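Researcher: Re-running this chain for the archive, since the previous output was lost when a drive failed. Same request as before.
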Amino acid sequence: MSAPNNPYDPVQVAALDPSALDAAVAAAQAAFAAAGDLEALKAARLAHLDKGPVAQARREIGALPPSAKAEAGKRVGAALAAVQAAYTERVSALEAERDERILVAERVDVTMPTARRPHGARHPIELTQERLADVFVGMGWEVAEGPEVESEWMNFDALNLGKDHPARQMQDTFFVDPPDGGLVLRTHTSPGQIRTMLTRTPPIYVVVPGKVFRTDELDATHSPVFHQLECLAVDRGLTMAHLRGAIDAFVHAMFGDVKTRVRASYFPFTEPSMETDFQCHVCRGAGGTDSGCRTCGGSGWIELGGSGMVNRKVLIACGIDPDVYTGFAFGFGIERTLQLRNGLSDMRDMVEGDVRFSAQFGMAV
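Model: Regenerated structure tokens:
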């Protein structure tokens, strides 16, 4: 920087010369115009705007006498404004070019089908239901279905459930309006057995899966809507031994090589009736309070469901001669089977619709 002037010996400052300022402005404009992208323009700005001749001239104003500072300040300000305007114009042009390139390079055709499809998963209840049915289809049985809205006769009377039976009361059954119209939401899949016996001639071997409804509160072990699978066989000479064999085949297919046992019970639609337990597939029947098995609660056994020989009154109601044919039936809950096979503790996880729950099972159980 030049030394300050004094009133007696003024010093000429070359950077403040009008021709030098004009040349600096022209050089800055040419450098900005030649910049091909924003990085190049940034370098040109440093060379001509932040640290260039015009910036140098502005610092030299302090070397002038007071009488010359005003005029020099105007010349430097005008030059600086011209350089700034050239830079701003070029920045706008380069940013517009960059944005246009981005729009072209990153353009997406929203009408094209996307390939980013999440992997789906069938609901585990449906998969378990199919697996259960496949066990019996493999033995030569057929799958039968029935409506979810049933007549009271199909749901109760034909199954030997009298008018005074507790299951026919409002606290257990959903009645379809009007309440005395004779229609209910089926409380079990047994009406499918009645429909089959009414429309087919023995021998009959069917498995009836489906959704059923009862007035239960939703909690960890109960649901007002759940699924059952019932099996019915009607033929000449069927005995309890055939029933035990069918149950054992099912248990072995679902839980492995475990033992079963039966306990006497009562159901209106079977006589004799029994409850079936199978050996815990986790602790293998070890049982005892020290086993620590949460699946069977330390008992070593797990309750499967009810079964028995078809009651003569049910066969007669369906037009089948009980002196010629005998039959057996048994059923169990699909949700319970799913819980036992996969160690699930809360039934609400199955019905709340969280896809993360279904995704765990993929396409097979």
